[in-house]
């Protein structure tokens, strides 16, 4: 079974990850093991935790993994702001990524609320 594939939050986070990888290719090479790596790890954490949570047998466990994904969303939001301040990320790329991240965050929070209300 692959229940995560039916979740919009998971699908959208895969698309965000693809965009992020393309955009961070232009970041300074000296940041490969710094901000670039941290952004990619945080972005990767989102669909991975949504998938792992969806595969769990209890709603409580799913909520726990959604909380981890939501934490990664907050981390990535902060990294976007830092990257703009350091002029690694253009305003246009920031707006694109930030819009996608906000949508994923709303979906993840909504899914969490739904699971909590079903208990």
TrEMBL record:
> Per UniProt, what is one Pfam family of this protein?
23S_rRNA_IVP
Q: Where are the membrane-spanning stretches?
A: none
Q: Which InterPro entries match?
A: 23S_rRNA-intervening_sequence, 23S_rRNA_IVS_sf
Q: Which residues form a coiled coil?
A: none
Origin: domain of life: Bacteria
Q: Which NCBIfam families match?
A: four helix bundle protein
Protein's recorded name: Four helix bundle protein
């Amino acid at each position: 079974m692959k229940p995560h594939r039916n979740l919009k939050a998971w699908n959208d986070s895969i698309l965000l990850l693809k965009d992020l990888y393309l955009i961070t290719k232009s970041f300074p090479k000296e940041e490969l093991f710094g901000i670039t790596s941290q952004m990619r790890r945080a972005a990767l954490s989102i669909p991975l935790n949504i998938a792992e949570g969806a595969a769990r047998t209890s709603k409580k466990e799913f909520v726990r993994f959604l909380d981890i994904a939501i934490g990664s969303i907050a981390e990535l939001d902060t990294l976007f702001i830092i990257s703009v301040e350091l002029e690694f990320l253009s305003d246009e790329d920031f707006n694109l990524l930030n819009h996608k991240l906000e949508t994923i965050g709303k979906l993840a929070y909504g899914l969490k609320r739904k699971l909590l209300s079903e208990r």
